[in-house]
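Intended use. Records like the one below are meant for learning the mapping from a protein sequence to its folded structure. Do not use them to infer anything beyond what is encoded.
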Amino acid sequence: LGVNSTADTSKVREIKIQNDHLKKAVEQSRKLDLKGKGLPPAGQTGSQEGGSSSLPPAPRQRPLQATIVNCSGSSQTGAQAAADARNAGFVVLSITTGNPMDQTQVLINSGSSRAEERVGSLPFNYTLLRGSVNPGSGDVVIYVGKDYSK
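Structure written out for the chain above:
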């Protein structure tokens, strides 16, 4: 059932699979390989009718969430930063006011490559901090400083 090719393409070795469960798994894998290459599975020609797929849909990732802490001293700046965060694809959980800060800082969970990639699309300057974000604050906390500008 399975075919294993070696470096010398003139030599092809047939592998006998004894277990029916493994045979089905190999057949399914071969169908997926052929489907990914735009080829119909063995024994079929043309396109499938009905358009249904035996593959489950890819799991949806939950959107990244952000909390905005306005430390700029200007009441409008928090709302502007929240709009920027939404435009970058974040769901804004809340906007609060914090103690004044000179520089804008963005705190992400250490090791969260998704969050780090997404904050890269924020349209303002900030210092990136990696640490531990309180789960109630989402994935990212944006501390908007006095230097906030686009």
